[in-house]
Amino acid sequence: MTPPQLVEFGWGPANRVPMLCRPFFGDQQTNCKYTCNKCGNGMEIYYGFKREEVEKIVKELMEGDMGKKMKKKVMEWKKLAEVATSSFGCLSINLNDLVTEVLLKNKC
After folding, report:
1. What's residue 83's pLDDT?
2. CB–CB of 45/86 below 8 Å?
3. What is the pLDDT of residue 15?
4. Which pLDDT score, from 0 to 100, does residue 79 have?
5. Has UniProt tagged this entry with the keyword Glycosyltransferase (predicted)?
6. Are 57 and 45 in contact (CB under 8 A)?
7. What pLDDT does residue 6 have?
8. Is-contact 19 9, C-beta < 8 A?
9. Would you state the pLDDT for residue 57?
10. Domain boundaries, the chain
11. CATH number for the 3-77 domain, one of 3.50.30.50, 3.40.1190.10, 3.30.360.10, 3.40.50.2000?
12. How far is it between the farthest Cα atoms of the chain?
């Protein structure tokens, strides 16, 4: 797996699968820590990893207990996102409030 492929692996949570993280630069460091430690739906591969280590981690993600826990966590996040983005979810309400406050109240 090449570095760009590992970066693009970030789409994992959107597809309801745990993430395998190897941050290289920029905000990837923060995203990796947040995904692995805060959200609980990823595992980090550290610098200097070997093929066998990647294989072990991928197997754990796909078949192991930790992977099953992460998949469950990903589904919980998915449900929360669906609720938040629904018509009466907090994101929709906040966006409507922002539009009302910024665009509609400030018309000259």
Report:
1. 87
2. no
3. 56
4. 85
5. no
6. yes
7. 46
8. yes
9. 86
10. 3-77
11. 3.40.50.2000
12. 65
Which amino acid, one-letter code, is at 55?
E
Residues 5, 49, 37: CA angle, nearest 5 degrees: 75
Instruction: Annotate 66-81 with b (16+ C-beta within 10 A) or e (fewer).
Output: ebeebbebbeeeeeee
Residue 61 identity: L
pLDDT along the chain (108 residues), means of 10: 48 63 86 84 83 88 87 84 85 88 74
Q: Which two tokens stand for residue 78?
A: 């998915």
Q: CA torsion sign, 74 to 34 to 62 to 1?
A: positive
C-alpha distance from residue 104 to each of 63, 95, 99, 101 (Å): 52, 13, 7, 6
